[in-house]
Amino acid sequence: MVLVLRKDITEEQIKHICEKLEKWGMKPVISRGVERTVIGAIGEEDVLRAQPLEAIPGVEQVMPILKPYKIASREYKKENTTISVNGVVIGGKKIIVGAGPCSVETEDLLIETAKAVKKAGATILRGGAFKPRTSPYSFQGLGEQGLKFLAQAKKITGLPIITEVMDARQIEVVVRYADIIQIGARNMQNFELLKEIGKTKTPVILKRGMMSTVEEFLMSAEYILSQGNLAVMLCERGIRTFERATRNTLDLSCVPVLKSLTHLPVIVDPSHGTGHWKWVNPLSRAAVAVGADGLLIEVHPSPEDAYSDGEQSLLPEKFSKMLEDLKPVASAVNREI
Ligand code: PEP
Ligand code: MN
């Protein structure tokens, strides 16, 4: 940690700061420049992070040196993390595609969708059984019945399943069915849930909160990793900005930023990111071009009848065409799809 001191700092104040740092177990190293004096505090940075350093008289600015997240950082692990789920490797050369309806509706519809997305080239089936809806009067998901339908679709197609957990009380039932647990945008900072998920061994896809910074996103991943579950992938799904032409603003700039800061796989969800099926194909191409390790796409055989997110769901044939369109983009960036 580096403490930049005020121009008018007194020797008395410098002495006081050094005493405080020593009290916290740090070794203060004073550097007197022409313009400014700075103090480098050598020691456990986490200890200092908890202190109100800028409240000490004479301290103008505090600059951390290490990242606040540790296990998630590239410094901790240089090589990309790969996560293996039922033979599907996430974070390798092949870009993975998870596709399916927003919500699990009927068994027949889910199986029809699962077969269609598999035929088109998807490697994972998505579908929510516990749904985080803005209105308590909207469809809330089928619960365990939905998980059973997902299991049936998996049995028929062989596709592993991604499905959401909204509350720690649902973990036990969801891990019995899910190959990958989804933590939705609204729960990205539900720290107790993150800690509980961290105690499981099931791979996790953590969606970025719609009002969260990249650093907060990585700190949430750190909550899961620090409990021992190292199979975490991050998913950019759009953030809320002033722009209303799209449902959210898909922050594709975070993809290369995340790839430089962390070794964890980065997935992009252009369905929630844009909110309209028309923009899913172009934004998927952009996501692949910018280095995403995977895509999460909502597909529905009859979007106009969907229980949730019909506007942003692709028809199976449009999804199939999209995967074709992605091939040259993937090969241009030395990836496969
Ligand atoms: C979803 O995947 O259907 C969903 C609710 O996603 P998000 O948490 O990103 O809104
Ligand atoms: Mn949805």
Structure, explained:
The strands form 3 sheets. The chain has an 8-stranded parallel beta barrel, surrounded by 6 helices. Strands 2-3-1-4 form a 4-stranded antiparallel beta sheet, with helices on one face. The radius of gyration is 23 Å and the shape is elongated. It contains 11 helices and 14 strands. It has helices spanning 11-23, 45-49, 107-120, 144-157, 171-177, 191-198, 214-225, 254-261, 270-274, 280-289, 316-332; strands at residues 2-5, 27-32, 37-42, 59-63, 83-85, 88-90, 96-100, 124-126, 161-164, 180-183, 204-207, 232-236, 266-268, 294-298. The two termini are 43 Å apart. The longest helix has 17 residues, at 316-332. Helix 5 (171-177) links the parallel strand 9 (161-164) and strand 10. Helix 3 (107-120) runs parallel beside helix 11 (316-332). Helices cover 34% and strands 18% of the residues. By secondary structure, the chain is of the alpha/beta class. Phosphoenolpyruvate is lined by residues 102, 128, 132, 184-186, 207, 237, 272.
Q: Can you tag this structure with a few keywords?
A:
four-stranded antiparallel β-sheet; single chain; binds phosphoenolpyruvate; 11 helices; 337 residues; elongated; eight-stranded parallel beta barrel; binds manganese (II) ion; 18% strand; alpha/beta
